[in-house]
Design goal:
2 copies of one chain form a homodimer. In chain A, 38% of the residues lie in helices and 20% in strands. Chain A is an alpha/beta fold. At the A-B interface, strand 5, helix 6 and helix 7 of A face strand 5, helix 6 and helix 7 of B.
Chain lengths: 284, 284
């Protein structure tokens, strides 16, 4: 029977607990989150327990990765429920700092990752990956875990974080966890909570349309034709705008095409459904 | 009698030695350098030994902090002499990585510090502080020291590194060491080796002119008049161009003036003498 995790709000308390585990020769995993937890996050906690003796989860809705017009204020929050779910999954410690702990007066440092952050989300949300890289560098330095886990649902983010951790020599292993899906295939996301019942039914088309596009790519059809057809199908079903349906290299994020895909391709989608923006990706 | 320090060139070797010290409950200090060592660096090693049980020095001429027209190729290098001096000062371990260890293929992360990096060197050498913040973040993450020491001769750099370490929550204390001067007052600098005998004699005017300017500021004279007079005296003596003689706040680097200085002011100078650029600073 899992016990309720401790919740700490300062770096000193976080470090004290992690140091105690370290002193006992035990390994520590970290799962950074923005709360509003679902099975995707919890699967990362369970994955962390395979890699380490203890799992720390952070809950911090990071203002630096939202643009002014985005949904920072509306982003779902519910610490009590999150803590209960984390405890059930085996997480022992929650780090839930205030904004003033993370970004005190005078804060003025940015971590920027070029290359893998360029296309897709980097084009559509120009401040996003800088905000992510900066806050994740902070969280990893605050906690000092042996391993940190991030979902492949945000695949480009995972690549940016891996690149940042390697480039800055953070002494931590970055591990991606597979995307967890609803029964109808929709990728779990905190933002799914924004969908109306009707939109939720329509959203199930994303994995269907994209799975068929992946099959067409595997069959050797031209990338640009497959992308255009998938985007058109989503738009016809009521999605709009479709920010992108694009095949990129799964390591470098280089744009693929024209022509058929080679090895290591990945197909990415971002599309709006009403006021909700859904993203997802598949290995080709 | 000091023994010769070990020289390691990979992060794995560096971490292995530091981990062994850590496992014995011992504290580690780091002194990052670009080699070409002088008494200023060695004083930091001795200061490190007061704060910790072991001192690691790094020797790495960091290409990322030089602009294409600057003196990266000409920068003095001499590992054998540096190692001997470090050993005499009590340093036990030298980390001297190749460029390919620090910046392998695909490297694409930058650490940028706004605010304190803005004026003075930030204006004159736009790529400098980004290069410094990035390489120091890497070195500190590679070594994981308890304390790291930097000279106050590069005062603005010290502030940038303190800001970066605090903002990114690096688990290390950043300590500044006082500027070490030659008998005639010239601040020790690896770049003094560029000076001809005649230039070296002229260079001694910098501390004389600046000490008098500091006295005038303390006497309540207007900052802008004191700065202009000091710059004119340096130019009359053969310096040129004088990049700046400017008073700034010693914590925020805010530009001071017009009028008399308040508490916490610092006077900064950068001036060329032939092909050599000298910088220095004084508390007012």
């Amino acid at each position: 029977m899992a016990t309720a995790p401790s919740i700490v709000r300062t770096v000193a308390e976080l470090r004290r607990q992690v140091a105690a585990w370290r002193a006992a020769g035990e390994r520590v995993a970290m799962v950074p989150t923005m709360g509003a937890l679902h099975e995707g996050h919890l699967s990362l906690v369970r994955l962390g327990l395979i890699r380490a003796d203890h799992v720390v989860a952070s809950i911090f809705v990071n203002p630096a990765q939202f643009a002014p017009h985005e949904d920072f204020d509306a982003y779902p929050r519910g610490e009590g429920r999150d803590a209960e779910l984390l405890g059930q999954a085996g997480c022992e410690l929650i780090f839930a700092p205030d904004v003033a702990v993370m970004y005190p007066d005078g804060f003025s440092t940015r971590v920027l990752v070029d290359g893998v952050s360029g296309p897709l989300e980097g084009e559509k949300r120009p401040q996003f990956f800088g905000g992510v890289a900066t806050v994740v560098a902070k969280l990893l330095n605050q906690c000092g875990p042996d391993v940190a886990l991030f979902g492949e649902k945000d695949y480009q983010q995972l690549l940016v974080i891996k690149r940042m951790a390697r480039d800055l020599d953070l002494p931590v292993e970055i591990v991606g966890g597979p995307t967890v899906r609803e029964a109808d295939g929709l990728a779990m996301s905190s933002r799914n909570a924004y969908l109306s019942a009707e939109e939720r039914a329509t959203a199930a088309l994303v994995p269907i349309v994209m799975a068929e596009a992946v099959e067409r790519l595997r069959a050797g059809l031209a990338i640009e034709a497959v992308e255009a057809e998938a985007a058109a199908r989503l738009e016809a079903a009521g999605f709009g705008p479709v920010d992108y349906v694009q095949a990129h290299d799964g390591e470098t994020m280089a744009r693929l095409g024209p022509g058929p895909v080679g090895a290591g391709a990945r197909l990415f989608v971002a599309a709006w459904l009403g006021k909700t923006r859904l993203i997802d990706n598949w290995a080709v």
